[in-house]
């Protein structure tokens, strides 16, 4: 197969690993509670076998075109023995340089939600999912926790001696205050978990009240939405100032130079043995140019990188790169239509015709040299809420017939699409496909930050990518895209089918108040079905992801959905 030197755009993702597990859990530093069995534990890896891998059976998804994908809902583990034998203590003088890829002006959790490579090492939750396994919830800032019989009151016992990076205590009153700032900065972080109130009843006890059961509440306590930030720093600097980016994680932010690097240092007062960092200094190199990235990897100036193009992968292969070079599969990339901004999209036949005019296999070949996977659902094949749909297919003749049936000519479909610079090639491929059918799109490339503003305001016509979907958090996007006032509205059914929109809102309420993970997944699948049968979004394709890492470092572990690296597991 010919190697195309083309650009692979990376979808923005919010990394949160949320699910539902035990009725009551207690955790020492490393040992999960097994005293009670959850009524319905979260399935891992979409039904795939998730037994611990051996040294010769490493967790690596197959990525050859046409192969059966293997999803692991936890992590990509390069070597299990290296992981098990990591030192769990600081190695003075060690340094690791990681490609950030993009600048992050504000490193606070609510302002860097898609940069999990940063926040998952600087911040941490009351709880944690051990290696991303949603059935293995352990204590982190909290050492134990329990809930009332009706799942509406949760009580967390905060571990002694936990410090924020500024030296202040991370006790129950500090966490309660930190959450007030979280609510001010991004209210959905609170409301999406059905939280109505919380209070510190003493220095070690935090009590949280819910309006309804939340089947993924423990996982929400493990990840970005409710990771406490130093309230002392927030009071001093405010919720938008990166000087307040102070958590309790194994690494603290040492310095930030705009457009150059973010430097982390191992936190000397870190408390949790199982997450004790070994590498002393982490440098996130901010290098935007892809050729420069490759040269820096080959020269050893960058120790590890997530690569965003097929061209980079082939170049490293061709140049005999002697480090770890792995090919994986990225996240979902559905194409969302905005019938509010483009009224002609309100006609279902038009939406279906657009799908018929877009040859996803051709786009996959063009951009990814055929190494991606063309999906039959808006979510990746094999993940929990993916619903295979046989009505996504390329047939331009049928598309023409559909338009004719409602008295629409292809030339009647004209719209403007402001697009982020990192997705330029995807949109150009769609523009070319639709142009062959006579549909006219004008593209305006804008910076990612400006694009986010347009997304929040609904001032867009066509968007590609998922908002936070993961194998272990399949319900996450709906909280960000469905309701009025949500962070990034992508479902606009109320403008052309109010009855359907009402059903979707009802299904969402059932999803977020379900009693078990399995019940929640069924409602999640129904939302997926509503969107797909309505053609509110068109199935896209999963792009290949690539990871390059120097063999000097051991303990390489990355999250499977987005390849965020766990820095505290690395050592030399």
Q: How would you write the strand order of the largest sheet? A: 1-6-7-9-8
Distance linking N and C termini: 38 Å
What overall geometry do the principal axes of the alpha carbons give? globular
Number of domains: 3
Instruction: Evaluate the radius of gyration.
Output: 23 Å
Mean pLDDT: 85
Residues in helices, as a percent range: 25-40%
- CATH fold category name of the largest domain: Dipeptide-binding Protein, domain 3
CATH architecture annotation name of the largest domain: Roll
Strand content of the residues, in percent? 15-25%
What does the main sheet amount to?
Answer: 5 strands, antiparallel
Annotation, overall tally of beta strands: 23
CATH secondary-structure class of the largest domain: Alpha Beta
Could you give me the name of the CATH homologous superfamily of the largest domain?
A: Dipeptide-binding Protein, Domain 3
Q: DSSP helix count? A: 16
Q: Structural class, judged by helices and strands?
A: alpha+beta
The unreliable regions are 1-74
What does this structure look like?
- By secondary structure, the protein is α+β, with helices and mostly antiparallel strands.
- It is 26% helix and 20% strand.
- It has a 5-stranded antiparallel beta sheet with strand order 1-6-7-9-8, with helices on one face. It has a 4-stranded mixed beta sheet with strand order 3-12-11-10, with no helix packed on it. It has a 3-stranded antiparallel beta sheet with strand order 13-22-14, with helices on one face.
- The chain is globular.
- The model is unreliable at 1-74 (pLDDT under 50).
């Amino acid at each position: 197969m010919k190697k195309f030197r083309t650009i692979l755009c990376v979808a923005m993702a919010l990394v949160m690993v949320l699910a539902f597990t035990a009725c009551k859990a207690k955790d020492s530093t490393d040992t999960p509670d097994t005293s009670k069995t959850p009524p319905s534990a979260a399935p891992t890896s979409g039904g795939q076998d998730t037994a611990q891998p051996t040294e010769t059976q490493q967790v690596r998804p197959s990525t050859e075109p046409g192969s059966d994908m293997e999803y692991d809902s936890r992590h990509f583990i390069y070597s299990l023995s290296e992981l098990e034998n990591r030192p769990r203590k600081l190695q003075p003088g060690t340094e690791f340089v990681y490609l950030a890829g993009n600048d992050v002006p504000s490193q606070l959790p609510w302002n860097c939600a898609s940069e999990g490579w940063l926040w998952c090492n600087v911040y941490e939750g009351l709880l944690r999912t051990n290696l991303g396994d949603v059935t293995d919830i352990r204590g982190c800032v909290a050492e134990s926790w329990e809930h009332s019989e009706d799942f509406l009151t949760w009580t967390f016992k905060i571990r002694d001696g936990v410090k924020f990076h500024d030296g202040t205590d991370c006790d129950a009153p500090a966490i309660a205050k930190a959450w007030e700032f979280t609510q001010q900065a991004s209210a959905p972080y609170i409301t999406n978990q059905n939280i109505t109130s919380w209070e510190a009843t003493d220095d070690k006890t935090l009590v949280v009240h819910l309006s309804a059961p939340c089947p993924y509440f423990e996982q929400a306590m493990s990840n970005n939405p409710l990771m406490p930030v130093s309230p002392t720093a927030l009071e001093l600097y405010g919720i938008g100032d990166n000087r307040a980016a102070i958590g309790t994680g194994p690494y603290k932010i040492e310095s930030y130079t705009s457009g150059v690097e973010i430097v982390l240092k191992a936190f000397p007062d870190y408390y949790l043995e199982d997450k004790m960092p070994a590498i002393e200094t982490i440098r996130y190199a901010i290098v935007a140019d892809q050729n420069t990235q490759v040269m820096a990897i080959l020269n050893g100036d960058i120790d590890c990188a997530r690569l965003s193009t097929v061209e980079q992968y082939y170049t490293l292969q061709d140049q005999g790169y002697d480090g770890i070079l792995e090919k994986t599969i990225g996240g979902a990339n559905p194409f969302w239509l905005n019938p509010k901004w483009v009224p002609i999209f309100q006609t279902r036949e038009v939406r279906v015709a657009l799908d018929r005019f877009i040859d996803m296999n051709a786009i996959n070949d063009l951009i990814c040299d055929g190494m991606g996977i063309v999906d039959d659902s808006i979510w990746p094949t094999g993940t929990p809420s993916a619903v295979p749909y046989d009505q996504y297919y390329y047939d331009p003749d049928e598309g023409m017939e559909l338009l004719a049936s409602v008295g629409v000519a292809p030339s009647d479909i004209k719209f403007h699409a402001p697009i982020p610079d990192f997705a330029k090639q995807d949109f150009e491929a769609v523009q070319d496909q639709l142009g062959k059918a006579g549909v006219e799109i004008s593209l305006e490339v804008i910076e990612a930050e400006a694009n986010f503003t347009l997304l929040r305001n609904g001032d867009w016509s066509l968007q590609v990518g998922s908002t936070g979907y993961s194998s272990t958090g399949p319900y996450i996007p709906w909280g960000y895209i469905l309701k009025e006032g949500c962070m990034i509205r992508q479902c606009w059914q109320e403008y052309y089918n109010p009855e359907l929109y009402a059903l979707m809102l009802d299904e969402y309420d059932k999803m977020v108040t379900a009693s078990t993970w399995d019940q929640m997944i069924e409602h999640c699948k129904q939302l997926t079905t509503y969107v797909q049968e309505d053609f509110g979004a068109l199935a896209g394709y999963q792009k290949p992801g690539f990871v390059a890492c120097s063999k000097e470092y051991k303990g390489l572990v990355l999250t499977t959905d987005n390849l965020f690296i766990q820095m505290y597991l690395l050592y030399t």
